[in-house]
Fold each of these.
Amino acid sequence: MPNSSHLSQPDHAPDRSGPTQRKRLLPLLIAAACCLPPAVLAGDIEVTVLEKTTGRALRGASVCLGTPADPIQLGGELSAGNGSVLFRDVPSAPLLLIVSKNGFVTQRLPISGAPGDSGKVILLGKGPQGPLSCRLPAFQPTTDQPGTDLGTPSLAINGGARSTHQRRVRLDIATPSDANQFRASESADLSGAQWLPLNGSPSFQLSPGPGLKRVYIQLRRYREIRGATLETRSGTARDDIRLE
């Protein structure tokens, strides 16, 4: 007789548990699922770059977010007129923030991406830039018409204010040449934005909800001559403001 201890066993024993036993296991499975560690959450991080001695906002600082191996892994951008850069959907993980600008000492800051790191103020002091710089190309204006000769306007929302409590804001635009119309949107491609007469500093209504808002504008020179329309468009300018 072969030894029963050496008999091969089936890979999967049949499920002999009855309905009553499965009902007893169900609450335990639910409780176990409730106690599993939460998934890694993603959030937004706003970085504001200021000059150390004066506290004024620094436009055009290179702000990079990533890891030591790839400092720009999660993106990089030049700070806007109010010194702000917004990174969206940042994972909760050890990260590296590098901020640099010509003529200022580069800042290198480890962050976690956790909710407590949602806002960072970086003070840049004047001095040699150093080897830790994160170099980004200058902001390239966009245009949907080749051969533009209007140049690129400059935009300051509410005179360059960092925040506002009102959705209706003022667009302070330095107009190139003889532009007579503008359009504005929170979409980079200005899709759906209507061309309006450009008179002084026009107003714009921000989207609802608190947070950092980025507004894009474009100008054009528009004329009608003997039934024909002629237009020349500028590049696209942008600025940020936080809606409280």
Amino acid sequence: MSAVALTGVTSEPAEPAEPAEPAEPAGRADEALSALPSPAARVAAFAAICAGGLAGAIIGYSLVSLQCDGDCAVALGLGLLVGAVAAAGGMSIVAVLVLRAAGEWRDVRNRQS
């Protein structure tokens, strides 16, 4: 027997498959799916990042002002800048994780309803 007969492969062209109809997304039919968080959540995340940066700036400034005597303008400015950037960077990571988690919760809630 030939290999073609054993595998069931024929040389006849296959009929084109009918395109499957797109599945209707979970939730309301008129609601478009979006990966973006709501505008309110984005504004809250931006405000949290700004507040974290402000708190980091205050902490950085305070740490340098407690340790420096005399003319410390450059050191105070650097402490303020480094504290603000570090805290805002950390808060931005937290904000992104929270927005992603909120999006996943929304998807799960839409699938359950």
Amino acid sequence: MSKVLWHITMSPDGFIAPRDHSTEWMFEHGSAGPMGGEVMERAGAILAGRRGYDLGMRAGSGPRAVYGGAWQGPVFVLTRRPRDSASGVTFLSGSIQEAVATAREAAGANDVGVFGAGLAGQCISAGLVDEIFVHLVPVLPGDGLRLFSMTGSASVRLRKTRRSSAGGPGRRGAGGGGATPASAAGEPRLGTAAG
């Protein structure tokens, strides 16, 4: 069965977006490195939240496309404000479980990539995330949208599975890592990379 992967870029102080939730800052730090490439290869479908879609994520090609246009496939947007599907994007309005099931069916034997903090938080709370890939980028915004913030929810234990580095002195780039909920213990595993 396919896995559900949360793939996210984060600053070392725990933020995934500035206060305005824009995504521009992510494009200033180079590529996602080898683990980002792995996620792209594994993903057969993308499930995203409406805010991320409205802020610029699009199917197709170009710098604002999913993975800068390097990935092609079905994109699903879970929203309370559905609209007609357009250019490779299908809008869904059901439960998080239904949305993941739809994306899994479209992904076939491949995995489902999850984009967005709110949507990923819903998936984690529902026990649907299998792996988390975090790309650390060299910037400290000091404020903004946190990686995970679910008020009133129980803590989620992660198991670190690997770490890699892409970039370094004189090189721009973001690294990637993988985390997976431990199947038996129900804990997502976590991989990180520093750029």
